[in-house]
Design brief:
Blueprint (H helix, E strand, L loop, with lengths): L1 E7 L2 E7 L7 H4 L15 H16 L5 H8 L5 H22 L19 H17 L6 H6 L5 H18 L6
């Protein structure tokens, strides 16, 4: 492992670069994390955006258990169209951000860090998809589903939290 130091925004930063294909060294510290302090009331805009996004998910029937089951049974194009349009929108957005060197609302440059694909990504994706198919709920709209009155989803939410805790507890012991 080699350590490099460099200057960024007037501060000395030390970054460890692991040449042994160990991918977890970047998880602990984000050298690009914003140093700006944001007041608590500033977070209300994110709450408002989340509520609006939840309403959009409900109205588009993206959180519907029946729509999700239709997708996994290959009976409807609805969810594939939503997911496909999200992927295309994300691709165009990243291209525009890179082309015009867009900065954050705090004036910091937006950076993209390439990560190597490893077996853990494949296994994690398969487990995520299996859980999605079994519960009919992606972790994203769980709160929106609970908000619409589907209180049985609380069981799914608690299991998602438990699974996250178990992963965090045993992460260092898992194979790389």
């Amino acid at each position: 492992m080699e350590t490099r130091s460099f200057r960024e925004t007037g501060k000395e930063l030390s970054v460890s670069t692991n040449t042994d294909f160990e991918v977890r060294s970047l998880d602990a510290v984000d050298v690009h994390e914003s140093e700006q302090t944001k007041p608590f009331l500033n977070n209300l805009k994110y709450l408002f955006a989340g509520i609006i996004f939840g309403i959009i998910l409900v109205k588009a029937e993206v959180i519907s258990w029946f729509r999700i089951q239709e997708m996994f049974r290959l009976q409807s194009f609805h969810m594939y169209g939503v997911i496909g349009s999200a992927v295309v929108t994300g691709m165009i957005s990243v291209w525009l951000i890179r082309k015009y060197k867009v900065k954050t609302i705090y004036g910091e440059p937006v950076t993209f860090v390439r990560k190597k694909l490893n077996k853990g990504n494949i296994y994690g994706g398969l487990i995520f998809g299996l859980g999605w198919a079994l519960t009919g709920a992606c972790p994203g709209p769980l709160f929106a589903q609970i908000g619409t009155g589907a209180t049985v989803i609380i069981v799914t939410l608690l299991n998602a939290i438990a699974g996250t805790w178990v992963y965090g507890k045993f992460r260092d012991r898992l194979p790389h």
